[in-house]
Specification:
Helix 3 packs across helix 5. The relative contact order is 0.05. The chain has a domain of 62 residues: Orthogonal Bundle (Arc Repressor Mutant, subunit A), CATH 1.10.10.10. The termini are far apart. It is rod-shaped, with a radius of gyration of 55 Å. The protein has 205 residues and is mostly helical. The protein contains 6 helices and no strands. 82% of the residues lie in helices and 0% in strands.
């Protein structure tokens, strides 16, 4: 056998070693590929799961905002409705009270005008009673205290003088006379000169 010739057994052994090495490389490569693939799949799965949870949280937050707005609107509507009902009830109560007061006031005024035939003591007693009834109902008793000038003008009105005649006699303007007459009517709770004449006749029997 020549010195430079490689034995066949050594060649075969070397080939087997090379094949085994290649198999190990391929096996390792496959293993690494599977691990990388599994890692990427896991990452994709995690990202999808996170995206789904983020969308779910966003939807829940949106739903909560909508519910909060709806609850706020409902509360505002309830407050408004309660306020309107309270105002309506108050207005109805005041209307009934005012109607009753007007009716009673009209009745009292009529009764006052019918006291002409009574004596002074009985008339004063009845007037006090009627005014007390009016006050108990929450009404305001008219201030029947006339000033000296108002009493003077009332007396001249009862004598049949017109506003211009009264103005000439007292040396004041007709407008001033009208102002005094309006104050007299307001204080006595009357509207016409005829009522003034009737009332003054009863006040001064």
């Amino acid at each position: 056998m020549g010195a430079g010739r490689v034995p066949q057994a050594a060649v075969r052994k070397s080939q087997r070693a090379a094949v085994g090495y290649m198999q190990d490389v391929v096996t390792l490569s496959d293993s690494l590929y599977r691990e990388e693939t599994a890692r990427k799949v896991a990452e994709i799965s995690i990202r999808q799961d996170l995206a789904g949870k983020e969308k779910q949280l966003a939807d829940q937050e949106k739903s909560l905002r909508q519910r909060s707005v709806l609850i706020g609107l409902l509360i505002a509507c309830l407050v408004l409705l309660t306020t309107l009902l309270a105002v309506a009830w108050r207005a109805l109560h005041l209307r009934k009270k005012n109607e009753e007061l007007l009716r009673k006031t009209s009745e009292i005024k009529d009764r006052l005008l019918m006291l002409g035939s009574s004596d002074a003591d009985q008339r004063d007693s009845e007037v006090a009673k009627l005014m007390s009834e009016l006050t108990e109902m929450g009404g305001q008793v008219p201030d029947k205290t006339l000033t000296p000038r108002e009493r003077e003008i009332a007396s001249l009105c009862c004598d049949g003088l017109l506003s211009k005649e009264i103005a000439d006699q007292l040396h004041i303007s007709q407008r001033t006379v009208e102002t005094h007459k309006n104050n007299i009517f307001r204080k006595l709770g009357i509207n016409t000169t005829a009522e003034l004449v009737e009332l003054m006749k009863h006040r001064n029997p």
